Automatic annotation (TrEMBL):
DNA-binding among keywords: no
Pathway entry: Protein modification; protein lipoylation via endogenous pathway; protein N(6)-(lipoyl)lysine from octanoyl-[acyl-carrier-protein]: step 2/2
Cofactor: [4Fe-4S] cluster
Source organism superkingdom: Bacteria
EC supergroup of this enzyme: transferase
Segments forming a coiled coil: none
Protein's cellular compartments: Cytoplasm
Pfam families: LIAS_N, Radical_SAM
Annotated GO CC locations: cytoplasm
Organism of origin: Hymenobacter roseosalivarius DSM 11622
An individual GO BP term: protein lipoylation
Protein's name according to its UniProt entry: Lipoyl synthase
PANTHER family reported for this sequence: LIPOYL SYNTHASE (PTHR10949), LIPOYL SYNTHASE, MITOCHONDRIAL (PTHR10949:SF0)
C-alpha cells in the first residue's frame, strides 16, 4: 500500500513589531529627595493643591521641588481635552472650587516662592473657560506676595477672546501658551486644538502687552523643515520665549516616542530659532515649559 503523504501548509512567522527606541543615557534623572522637596510635598498635600509636576509626570520635579518651587495646576485635575501625549486625566470635570485662588495664594506665600508658575486643565464646558478663577488666583497671589513674579501657562480658549482678556489681566509678568508640536501633527497630537488658533492666541496676548512664551515637544515625528516653519510662525505672531524638550511617553496608552532627539540637535534648533527672531530659547531633552521659568521674567524683549 502506498504511503499517504500529508502536506502541511507552510506558516510564515508574523513580522516582528519594530523595536521601540531605547531611552538614552542623557534622559536619566535623579529621584526627588531632600528636605526642601519634602516641605513642598507636605504643603501641596495639606492645601489639597494640584501640581502639573505630578499630573504631568515631569522629569524635573525633583530638581524644581528640591529648590522650593512648583507649578500649580488650578481648576481641578480632570481635563475636557484628550490630547494623545498628556498624562492628565481626561473626562467630565466635577470640580469647580471657588476657594482655590485663596488656597493657592496662601501656599505660595508659605513656600516663599519668588517666581510662581500657574497652569490649568482645559475647561471647555465652562462659558468663560475658567477665566474668572484665573484672574482671581493671580490677583490674590499678588496681594499676599507682592514681590513674587508670576507666569501663567494658559490653555486654548477656543477663540473665546473675551475669556483670554480676563485670563491675562491679573498682573502676571509672563503669559505662556504651548503649541506643543508642528502643524502637520495636530490631528494626531492635539485633535481638539487648531495650530492657527493657538498662534492667534499668542498674537493677541502679545498685542495686549504681555511677555509671551510657548513650548514644543520634539520626538513625535516632526521633520526639520517643519520645526523651522513652526519657529518662523511663532516669531511672526509675536512670541518672545520658546522651550524645546523631548517628548516622553507617559503610559502605554499614549503616543509612542518616534525618536529620541540628541542634545546636539536641540542646540541646533536653539541657534536656528534665535536667528529667526525669537528672543530666548530654552532647549534640551529634559526641558519642560516651566523649567528655569524664573529666568524668563528678565529676558530682554
Amino acid at each position: 500500500m502506498d504511503e499517504l503523504l500529508l502536506t502541511l501548509p507552510i506558516i510564515q512567522p508574523e513580522p516582528a513589531a519594530p523595536a521601540r527606541p531605547r531611552k538614552p543615557d542623557w534622559l536619566r534623572v535623579k529621584l526627588p529627595v531632600g528636605p526642601e522637596y519634602a516641605k513642598v510635598r507636605r504643603l501641596v498635600d495639606e492645601h489639597k493643591l494640584h501640581t502639573i509636576c505630578e499630573s504631568g509626570n515631569c522629569p524635573n520635579m525633583g530638581e524644581c521641588w528640591g529648590a522650593g518651587t512648583a507649578t500649580f495646576m488650578i481648576l481641578g485635575n480632570v481635563c475636557t481635552r484628550s490630547c494623545s501625549f498628556c498624562a492628565v486625566a481626561t473626562g467630565r470635570p466635577n470640580e469647580y472650587d471657588t476657594d482655590e485662588p485663596r488656597r493657592v495664594a496662601e501656599a505660595i506665600q508659605l513656600m516663599g516662592v519668588k517666581h510662581a508658575v500657574i497652569t490649568s486643565v482645559n475647561r471647555d464646558e465652562l462659558k468663560d473657560r475658567g477665566a474668572s478663577i484665573w484672574l482671581e488666583t493671580v490677583v490674590r497671589v499678588k496681594q499676599l506676595s507682592p514681590t513674587t513674579t508670576i507666569e501663567t501657562l494658559i490653555p486654548d480658549v477656543k477663540a473665546n477672546w473675551e475669556a483670554l482678556d480676563t485670563m491675562i489681566a491679573g498682573g502676571q509678568e509672563v503669559v505662556s501658551h504651548n503649541i506643543e508640536t508642528v502643524g502637520s501633527l495636530y490631528r494626531l497630537v492635539r485633535p481638539q486644538a487648531k495650530y492657527d488658533r493657538s498662534l492667534e492666541q499668542i498674537r493677541r496676548t502679545k498685542a495686549a502687552g504681555k511677555r509671551t512664551k510657548s513650548g514644543i515637544m520634539l520626538g513625535l515625528g516632526e521633520k526639520k523643515d517643519e520645526m523651522y516653519q513652526a519657529m518662523d510662525d511663532l516669531a511672526a505672531n509675536g512670541l518672545d520665549i520658546l522651550t524645546l524638550g523631548q517628548y516622553l511617553q507617559p503610559t502605554k496608552r499614549h503616543l509612542e516616542v518616534a525618536e529620541f532627539i540628541h542634545p546636539d540637535l536641540f542646540s541646533h534648533y536653539r541657534e536656528e530659532g534665535l536667528a529667526r527672531g525669537l528672543k530666548y530659547i530654552e532647549a534640551g531633552p529634559l526641558v519642560r515649559s516651566s523649567y528655569h521659568a524664573e529666568r524668563h521674567v528678565n529676558v530682554p524683549i
